[in-house]
Amino acid sequence: MPTLGFGTFMLKGEKLKEVLDYALFLGYRHIDTAASYENEEEIGQVLSDRVNAGRLNRKDIFITTKVPCTHLKKADVIESAQSSLAKLKTSYVDMLLVHHPWGFIIKENNEMQFEHVDLLETWQGFSTLFKSQKAHSIGVSNFTLGQIDSILKSSDVPPANVQLECHAYFLQNKLKAFCDEHHIAVSAYAPLGAPNRPAPHVQNNENLLEDPLIKEIAKNYKKTPAQVLLNFLLCRGFVVLPKSANKDRIKENLDVLNWTMTTKDYDKIASLDKGIRFFRFLFMRGHPDFFEEEDF
């Protein structure tokens, strides 16, 4: 799995096609999407166009997509994955993740109704896709340590990847140590603090990119705050998934792989941990599988 990915959350349509094509031109080779982002068709079109033009080989691209909360039953998992493959115009994805462990149903009036689905049943569907090579690797996102451990203890196919929110204000030390112990790769979404996150997730005004320490360190290295934050997570052994629709920032985000900060500066950034989660999913309160007080 390439350690730097191109996040596509909230990107759609012609704008997504434009910036994704530019990212691939620059050298990005890891694309992170999800069925619920409703942009797999655009991604599939860009990739197909490049492959057909001889400018890209499918084997050189790492595609991650995710099965939504509405498809956690085994049969629904397989249906969702097959739909994603068709939209992405590929016979397999490199990584397939359970997007969230909180099942729900969308009723006719568009209201959301919580639904408990045994996550071991969900994982059976994922294991089937893995064994049939429709997904070359499988994993989870937004799962607690206990939920991950339950899968490890019950299945002969362990998760290869855990994707979770992680940044300098929310270090996820406990989950990272657990995943390292079990040889599970960890991907960080919102590595820059998600300054443009959707309104339902805005519960505070903290702006990680404006943190005085981050700006000071960035100035010393002649880098941007975003580059410093990404480099910090890479030093911690994370895969990072920044998202941007700005071509200058897309290019800047790629320039994080060929330099490292000093141990002193690394420790300064590590001291910023405030336990601040920007994506709190408060609308899931009351769900039997939502554990707000646990890291996920």
Structure description:
By secondary structure, this protein is α/β, with parallel strands linked by helices. 38% of the residues lie in helices and 12% in strands. The chain has ten helices and ten strands. It has helices at residues 13-26, 40-52, 74-88, 119-131, 145-154, 173-181, 212-221, 225-235, 247-254, 263-270, and strands at residues 6-7, 30-32, 62-67, 95-98, 104-106, 112-114, 138-141, 161-165, 185-189, 239-240. It has an eight-stranded parallel beta sheet, with helices on one face. A two-stranded antiparallel ribbon has the order 5-6. Strand 3 (62-67), helix 3 and strand 4 (95-98) form a beta-alpha-beta unit. Helix 1 packs parallel to helix 9 (247-254). The longest helix is centred in the first third of the chain and has 15 residues, at 74-88. It is globular, with a radius of gyration of 19 Å. The mean pLDDT is 95. Residues 4-273 form the NADP-dependent oxidoreductase domain. Pfam families: Aldo_ket_red. GO terms for molecular function: oxidoreductase activity.
Secondary-structure blueprint of this entry?
Elements: E1 6-7, H1 13-26, E2 30-32, H2 40-52, E3 62-67, H3 74-88, E4 95-98, E5 104-106, E6 112-114, H4 119-131, E7 138-141, H5 145-154, E8 161-165, H6 173-181, E9 185-189, H7 212-221, H8 225-235, E10 239-240, H9 247-254, H10 263-270
Parallel strand pairs: 1-2, 2-3, 3-4, 4-7, 7-8, 8-9, 9-10
Antiparallel strand pairs: 5-6
Helix pairs in contact: 1-2, 1-9, 2-3, 3-4, 7-8
